[in-house]
Amino acid sequence: MRTLSLTSFLMLAICLHGCGGGDKPADSPADGGATTEGLDDPMDSSSLGAPGEMPSTDPPAANETAAANEAPSASSSGSAEAASPDGSTLNYVPEDAVAVLIVRPSKVLSNPLVKEMITLMDQANPREKVEEKMADFADEVGVKPEQVDHVLVVVDKNMLDMAPMIAAGGARPSPVVVVQLAPGVSSQLILDSVPQGESIEIAGGTGVTTPDGGVLFKVSDSRLVYSSKENLDSVLKNASSGKVKAMVSKSAASDLALAVDLEPVKVLLQDAMKQNPNPPGMVMTMVMPIVTQLQTLSLGADLEAANILEVNVSTPNVDAAQGVHGMLNGFLGMGKQQYEQAKGEIPEEMQAMAKQLVDGAELSTSDTIVSLTLPRPENFEKLPEMLKPAFAEAAEAAKRAQKRNDIKQIGLAFHNYHDVYQHFPAVDSNGEKDEAGVRGKGLSWRVHLLPFLEYAPLYEKFNLDEAWDSEHNKALIAEMPAVFGDNPEGKTSIHVFVGENLAFNEGKPGARIRDYTDGTSNTILAVKAGDDTAEIWTKPGGLKFNAEDPFAALGNIGEVFMVLLCDGSTRDLSKDLDKTTFSNLIQQNDGNPVDF
């Protein structure tokens, strides 16, 4: 493990939650994600609550707190694990909690629809694969994301009070984070992954210190609590019945549940408003009148439920609730108007689903509570199939953008190389001579750019005094950096032009920027040619320049092709470009600079 970040549990779960949800029978609970009833994957007895029943929001009876509802503590049966192995993680929510967030990675990742969405995302951006990120997560944290049943994060009043100090760059207090692993997954795996973690005994149990000064405490074989060392003992002993705990318990079994006590948040915002009575941004100006009328906010999001989103806000009285309802209804109406204007841009196969979501969004008021619900549309399980064209288009756009970024990185590497050696690398050596005055036996300019592309370890593997196809160097062909392409045979179609009187030519030293007398912004340094021109990336040489037909060397380029100019910029050129103009762009000192 490289570095441990407990909030990575939270961030990963939130990101994955946005991928989608699975099939749900038509008789799903009408109140969306606000109950555990009917869930196919109820939490086990060591997590949020017993299967099939709502977690209790009532204060624990005096004779029950130590036996069942009290969190593990030093005073319970001599060990933290023996104290309450079946207790709810909600018992770690203190009475003065300002916000509680619960996310459930294992539930989301086990959903077939989510798996399909992940596959689509990986296809759209193969260099940033979700599965690889999850593998990195497992390497960093010690367990796989799907082995995390749920994560509970608590922000208390003390942390909120320190918000101005945090914003000013001061100390950052740690939230309370409870990690509940799936049955059979050992919490020791996470403890063992903490870099340079120091074992400590505290609160009647064991834990390890973390690099940020916090403590990871082993509550049981499958549960950990993270907190500051000073706060840990009170966290473990807490068994409160505060309003934030009561609110979040109603949607605790959802994919994501959030509860916020807005009263202390309003105080913080009002203080900020006094310092800046004209807050920046139109949104803040529009939202503040609503926020001042709210007391609490709770949210449940579950893409398996009848209502995939349910938001409830409480107000001080019925009149305030009606006022908030009116303001929110105005926002909702604006959103629906914007949808009507933009719906033509939505793929045809998704328009019916989008209309259901927009038309189904409903605001309601009950006494002092204002609620917003978003229904799960029909055929939601077909969402990945509907999104395939959009993902394919996004994949092409991402591929083009990545190619452009790769070319720019190569251009930057060329210039950094020049800063060090006062010339560009030669096409067939590093441009340097040995004691006998003989240049390197032959490695591509691409190899010699490796240290400037953050591939110094790979560069050091090459035997520079051997040819590219020596037994040793040939073994490194398979390690071609992605910046040159993704050909499985280690071939690339990123080339320089070679020929007499050109900046690059075989057997000659690398060019200097001062040799580009036609101007660095008027001369091609490298080109992304057709795939049929692909060559082993370590092989010296380039595209043979033919002044009469400079396009001949480019192969199948399509309608446009990308070039890297000597100043490091990139341009898309048309295959219909005048041959003479293209020839002038390739020649660095023919006296015919091209004015773009």
Task: Write structural notes for this entry.
The protein is elongated and about 85 Å long. The longest helix has 39 residues, at 383-421. It has two domains: 7-44 and 70-258, no CATH class; 389-586, no CATH class. The chain is 34% helix and 17% strand. The strands form four sheets. A twelve-stranded antiparallel sheet has the order 4-5-6-7-3-2-1-8-9-10-12-11, sandwiched between helices. A four-stranded antiparallel sheet has the order 14-16-19-20, with helices on one face. It has a two-stranded antiparallel ribbon with strand order 13-17. A hairpin with a 2-residue loop joins strand 11 and strand 12. Mean pLDDT is 78; it is low at 1-86 and 436-440. Helix 5 packs parallel to helix 16. It contains 20 helices and 20 strands. It has helices spanning 7-17, 65-69, 80-83, 105-109, 112-124, 130-141, 157-161, 163-167, 188-191, 229-237, 243-249, 262-275, 282-291, 318-342, 348-360, 383-421, 445-448, 456-461, 471-474, 579-586, and strands spanning 97-103, 148-156, 176-181, 199-202, 205-209, 214-220, 223-228, 256-261, 296-301, 307-314, 362-366, 369-375, 491-492, 494-495, 497-498, 524-528, 535-536, 543-544, 560-565, 570-574. With 596 residues, it is α+β, with helices and mostly antiparallel strands.
